[in-house]
Specification:
The chain has about 160 residues and is α+β, with helices and mostly antiparallel strands. The protein has helices at about 25-35, 40-45, 45-50, 60-70, 145-150; strands at about 15, 20-25, 80-90, 100-110, 120-130, 135-145. The radius of gyration is 18 Å and the shape is elongated.
Length: about 160
């Protein structure tokens, strides 16, 4: 059996708070290299200084990825997630190097599939910085195992 949440464990409205993680300039540079996005707002300190934010900013997907990783560290999806079904995030504020983020992750939808051997769970994310300001809102919908199916009670 997996360690994470099965569909039977998922109660709509349950919220989990992740630990924090500081996004530093090296994270921004590494992410730029990983994905090939070397846009000047992320990689050129002099250019970014003259922009409204006054400094290099993290890529939106970097912040999202870190928040998903922080949630994964809670062990709630370990061994029970089967597949990612949907993914959508809106950027509300920038994250600068040196900002510390955490996420409030809420189960906003949960239902068994028609075959009852798995379930669909939507996790809603409110990603916040060290000042408790929301920097991103979004959701991730995943297919998860059914405990009954894993125990051989559903065919």
């Amino acid at each position: 059996m997996g360690l994470g949440l099965y569909i039977e464990d998922c109660k709509i409205g349950t919220t989990y708070k992740t630990n924090g993680r500081t996004i530093d300039q090296s994270d921004i540079s590494l992410f730029a290299g990983l994905v090939g996005d070397f846009s000047t707002i992320h990689t050129d300190a002099e250019y970014a200084k003259a922009m409204p934010h006054g400094a290099r900013i993290a890529h939106g997907p970097l912040t999202t990825s870190c928040a998903i990783g922080l949630f994964a560290q809670l062990g709630l999806v370990d061994g029970t997630v089967i597949a990612l079904l949907n993914f959508s995030f809106d950027m509300k504020s920038v994250v600068r190097g040196g900002d510390t983020i955490h996420a409030l992750v809420t189960i906003s939808e949960a239902r068994t599939t028609s075959k009852k051997n798995s379930g669909v769970v939507k996790f809603s994310y409110d990603i916040r910085n060290q000042n408790d300001v929301t920097v991103q809102l979004g959701s991730m919908t995943v297919l998860v195992k059914s405990r009954a199916a894993e125990q051989g009670l559903v065919i």
